[in-house]
Amino acid sequence: MRIGVLSFASPHTVYQRWAPTFDRVAEDTGHTFSVLPLTPGELQESVANDKLDFIIGNALTTVTFKKDYGVSNLLSLVPNYHSDPDHAIGSALITRSSINIEDIEQLSTMSVVSSDPNAFGGFQILAGELASLSINPFKDFKKLTFVGFPQDKLLNLVLDKKADVAILPSCVLESAIEKGLVPESALKVVLQKEVPNYECAVSSSLYPSYAFSKLGHTSHVLATQVVKSLLTITNKDKEAISGRYQYWSAPVNDREVFRLLRTLNRWPFVTNWEFLLKGAVPWVIGALILLLLGYLHHLRVKRLVVLRTRALSSEMEQHQHTQKELFEQQKQFYKAQRVLLTGEMASGIAHELNQPLAGIRYLTQGCLYRLTPEQGELNSALNKAIEQVDRAQSTIKRFRQFCQQPSVYEKCDLKNLIEETLNLMAPEFKRMNISPKLSLERVTTIADISLIQQVLVNLIRNSLDAMESEALPELGIRLVKEDNQALIVIEDNGIGLSEEALSRLFFPFETSKEKGLGLGMVICKRIIEEHGGQIHAVNLIKGLKISVSLPIKEQQDV
Questions:
Q1: Are residues 292 and 345 in the same domain?
Q2: 282-294 pLDDT, tens per residue?
Q3: Chain centre distance of CA 348
Q4: pTM as predicted
Q5: Distance CA 184, CA 41 (A)
């Protein structure tokens, strides 16, 4: 069960005051109760939205909620400082001891503070007293300020000379002095009224104190059980001591509260237009919004038919143009890739052929050294064989030089290059349903853009191949600047490599692919090294991580 308590102090203080009372009620009834300290605005909102089952509030709050929300008053509180619950709370005008106030009209030129215009003891009671004297505090008090809760801070404003007078409920000053929050002689209550057997100084008439009420939806059976439990509490019980009251009594006569409402020109003596409008306005606004939305929807649909027709034609043309550019870009890229692969194959073949040719030459020369002068014909034949070996080596050298592509260095934005490469491979990502996780810094260096893109494509394609059988493939690409080096890191969650395969990753003609040539990683390594960088790979717990570092160069460094 949720109990909303009207709070003018800190929520912790209010909770400590009332929690023991409802812990006892919980023991007596077998139900669980939750104490919720709420400001006046929060309390009204919670009651309006049926978020509470019971409330503890002042007499004005109870009367107002009775009409608007069907709240029923069950009990009245008898406070420690007065035994008459009909006359338990009033307003106190508190100022510094050095200030003398003999007449209420003096307040019009002073700095006056209050917690809230709807606070019962903190403003409404005094406002009623002023209204009976034809004084409107909102118009006649030139320096009236509402500073909110908790109420104790109003005392500090007066002590610190930031305000001259504070309007507070009666007994707030005495309670603060008792707690040691305010020096005993520093503040005083002015324009006091004599009230027999009332222990606190007060500047107004007295009204009923707190009331315990139930909301309309709360079970009357439960309410009866709670009332029975509360009525068993006496002034000697720890619950009453903690709650700072003597006991609970039957509901008091709220005639004086209605008289105050009449003086303040509030409901039920005037129509509560604010409440009525608050309930009606959402419906009116909702209807207007629906009508407006319907009309706007009609215009929107009409406009969209025209725009979509134009946009569709434009998008089709743009799509065709983009597809054509992408196809040309891929065509040029794969052409450059074939040239690079041809050059690398030429280098590999030349290396492999030069070794046996060199062996043939050395063996032939060895035979020549062992010939006798009488073996002239054999000597001539062996010399011709050496000439053919030299010719073959010269041909291989010229073929290798022909296949090599010269590098073209220029300014290269690596972030843009990676993004262009990803766009180039977008169909592959879409096929595998992959969205690469990117973390790219802006890094610029001098490089051969075509060759670096060749490296990126090879590395990304290898990652995609490794994740071909992965249910949830993940590809991460990171570009950062570290110690004048551009670091590109590509990670996947594919099948990874064995330790043996990892150690021979950059060897020519070493491949784990069924139709691979084993030259892709060799090409990547040579391109990176040609740029003065490094490339290496490590196995992850699942997948492979390739790191490429390139020196960040200026134009004059190349």
A1: yes
A2: 788 888 898 998 8
A3: 56
A4: 0.46
A5: 33
